[in-house]
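Moderator note: this is an archived Q&A kept for reference. The question asked for a predicted structure of one protein chain; the sequence and the answer are reproduced below.
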Amino acid sequence: MLITFERIKSIFPTVVHRSEDASDTCVWYQAHDGTVFGLPKTELTERERRLLEWWATPFVVAADPNQAAWRERLFDETYRLDGPFRLSSLVLHYQEPEALDAFLDVLRDFMPTADIIVMTERHIEMIETDELVDLAELEDVLRAIAGDCYVEAHVVYSERPLGTPATIYAGHQVLLPLAKRSTKAYPASQLLYHYLLQHHESFADRTRLTAKTYASLDPTTLELLEALFAHTLNVSHTAKALFMHRNTLNYRLDRLYETTGYDVRNFHDASLLQLIVTLHKSE
């Protein structure tokens, strides 16, 4: 994301990154890789605006105060939710302009308690806190919308017992290009695992996306994880090896889930966390 930002800065020296500024004095855009940047309104000519819109999507001006508030929270690393939530990121592909309104109408009917935030004309975020919809039913709705409204939605989601939506949002923007099928909602952890195994221009591309997760693991937790991996995720055997009561171990795994969003009693989450630890230890 910063690589794209530096390229933009070489053309427009006054460009600002969304994480550093969120003022109304800028026109905001989102690049294809999720980078959000702003340019002072007074410095952009009409021709420059048209050129920018060829490869970056303008942010939709949020008239709804609730939408505006959520948009700010998605860039605010200090904002936390203290209860369970699901964040879903959608990239849309459609031809007719009116298709977006039809898509949103169907989505709001299906998810009446969710906060649906229109970031750009091609990018939507959904926050669920009170009641999470069934993902299989969501995929059925996406298939119906694709057939009736001619809108394809590529979806990445994360569920957390608590945490910071902004961190998850930033990760989703990197992973969305890996969500190939428009009729499927992809768990971000699944895509992250594949992303980390891909070839990248630099090792830092992988460690940057997982740095916060690894930083949250203290030496005691790393020792616990190594023991759990060594005993093929068997909680009873791991507890014996660590001279720890099984309930104590489960309590610590619950806290780890709250901290990282990954439940190592789940094979896929455990595999991802093991890969993250291995990558950072090999730096």
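Archived answer notes: The mean pLDDT is 88.
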